[in-house]
Predict the structure.
Amino acid sequence: MPTTTDSVRTYYDQNTNLFLKFSSSTKAQNIHRSLWTDGAQTLDEALNVSNARILKEIESVAPEHAHFADLGCGVGASLFYIYPRLQNPASALGLTLSPVQARLARGSAEQLNLQDQILFAEGDFTSVPLANHLDAVYSVEAVCHAVDPEKYFREAARLLHRGGKLILVDDYQTPRPLSQNESNWLKAYIDGWYVPGVRTVEQVSAWAEKYNLRLVKNEELTPHLRLRNLPDLLARAILFLGNLLPIKHAILPSMLGSMALQQCLHMGIVEYRFLVFEKI
């Protein structure tokens, strides 16, 4: 069945607490990937590498009083890292499709005494309840879930003022032709993780340009991941058997999709990248 916004919402409603329960780090509370670069020595530091880079990009636009939003904020971990490190920021928005994630994020904001500074809302990032003139918009491993990713770029462009930045950390498909086996692994990842928005950098750049967003930074982060790929034959056998299991909970496709992602990253089918666009 094709992925829909509702199915992505259900995927995160069912899985978020499990993701957090079995996370290797209870401190960072990030449900995105760790990056072993920029001097990271511990898992918590590696989980915050992407957050630190996003912080620098926001500061480059607005050294003080930054107006910004996290679209696809999960349980708020990136905002909880970035917001206190900015100089007198304005109130920030964290938007998530999942009511479970929004509830958890609000609870964490209260514990951190940030409930008046960071607003967490349940909603679709192609229709954001904000006026324009933001300094920065960012998304970490979120645009990949977009059913119609072009609408995301249109909305991000609407929100940003001229000179503002759109910052993305996400998966992108390689532009080279794929073998049948590679195509099968890409499909397994897309289906398992509900990520129909995984496209090439060239495709997303074309959409961005259409809405006056110019690509100014494009860095591959894949070499800084610690991959856990399996021998191809073994992985294919696990995928085949996993698809036969009569389990209806979304954790099963997530586990199979996670394995498929590792295969895709190892084979160069998918690239994990840091992109920055400037509104012109």
